[in-house]
Amino acid sequence: MANKMYSFYNLTQASIIVACDGESALYMVLHSEQKIKLSMPDYDLLMAICYALLHLKITWQAMHVQGHQDEQKPYEELTRAEILNWETDKAENKLQSTSGQI
Prior knowledge:
Layout: H1 2-8, E1 14-20, H2 23-30, H3 43-55, E2 58-64, H4 80-99
Parallel strand pairs: 1-2
Helix pairs in contact: 2-3
């Protein structure tokens, strides 16, 4: 997606915040020299991010989002990142329940 926007708008520079409730995944992609292995959880996502990191002239920033904040406080008090994390978790759970796997 970032790739298409970068090309469509003919951007010469951009900045993207990668928000995730998995600190280890954020570190793995943005700060580690460790090779990503096919057996790793979220391999496809990690590889897509790594590809974008290598091929786009974008400044990447990591943001850790505490997971399951919808269980800790009312929806109205959630930050935008927490809402997006909650919506992503809901979509993933729906996909898992309809397909049996991801």
